[in-house]
Every structure is written in structure tokens, then in C-alpha cells.
Amino acid sequence: LFAFSHALNLGFAQFYLGRQDSAALLVHEVFTHASETRDTLLLSQSSNLLGLVAFNGGEYDKALAFQRRSLEFAKRVHSLKSEADAMRQLGVLAWYHGAHDSALTAFYRPALSLYERVGDKIGEATTLSNIGLIFHDWQEYEQNLRYQLKALEIRKLIGPQGSVVVLPKSRQVLVTETAGRLRIIRQAIQAIENPQ
Questions:
Q1: Number of Cβ within a 10 Å radius of residue 194
Q2: Whose C-alpha in 1, 36, 157, 184 is 20 to 30 A from the C-alpha of 128?
Q3: Distance (Å, rounded) from C-alpha 72 to C-alpha 89?
């Protein structure tokens, strides 16, 4: 299980570094394993990443299906963080399709509440920023500014979080919470891919 959780973390790191193909390869492997072992939490998390990859590739219907699946799996195992992650991404998809009211009321506000309940400040800040963007689209600039400033305040309080651990023997990187660490992650992956 650790190996597949690690592979999923590496997949997220690849995704955030813009390496969509590498992220897709890793997450497909994790998803296959999770399907075979019926690991519902891993299915939720890998579905979320598959949805992100599809979204970045402009495959919005596919992204929507993966995020709905992620949400369904998260609810089955009562993983509030995974549920919030899926809801936030469903909100992004609704927003992209012009369904601003739905994005705000059905997805962003419930996701924000879940992030607050589990203490996920990074998720909270990201969702506040997403809510602000809706108000910007509605030309309610003061509301947008209010939400963006709340998000910024949280980001300043938490600062860079998480860790990047290089596992040279297995040529892998274990990443937890990537906020402010993308340069370190990129360097670690490059060092593994191109040892000197």
C-alpha cells in the first residue's frame, strides 16, 4: 500500500511540475492497483488526479466523470479531505462551463466547510481564491478582493509546508504538501532522472 500511496504522491508532483504524461502513467498504475484491491480511498485520490490530468488536457467531460467518481469514493470511506478535493474540482468545472451559482453553492462553499473541518489550510486558501474568482466574473470586485485577501492571509500564515524526501535506491521522491516547494521537487526529480 505504501508503494502505491508513494506513487500517487509522485504522480501529483509530476502533475504540478507540468509533466502530464508522467503523472498519467503513475496514476493509471495506482488506479489499476486500487481497483484490483478495492482500496476505496486510493480510488478516490487517483480518480481526483486522473480528473486533473484530463482537465489540463482539455477533456472536460472526462474530468467531470473522474471527479464525480472521486467524490463518490470519498463519501464511501468518509474521507472529508478527499471529498473536499473532489468538490473543489467539480466547482472549477462548473465555473468553466459558466455555472457560477452552482460552482459557488453546490461545490465551493461545501468544500470550504470540509477543508475548515479537517484543518486543511491549503485547501481552504485555494477554495477562498476560487470563490473570489466567481465574484470577479460577476464584477463584484470588492467581494473578490475580500476572498483573495482571506486566501492570502492564510497562505502567509502557513508558509511553505510539507517535505520532499529523495529515495535514491528506488529512484523515487516522496512528496507531502507541495506548497512553496515546486522548485525543490523539480530539482529532486531531475537529480533522480539524471544522476551525475
A1: 7
A2: 184
A3: 13
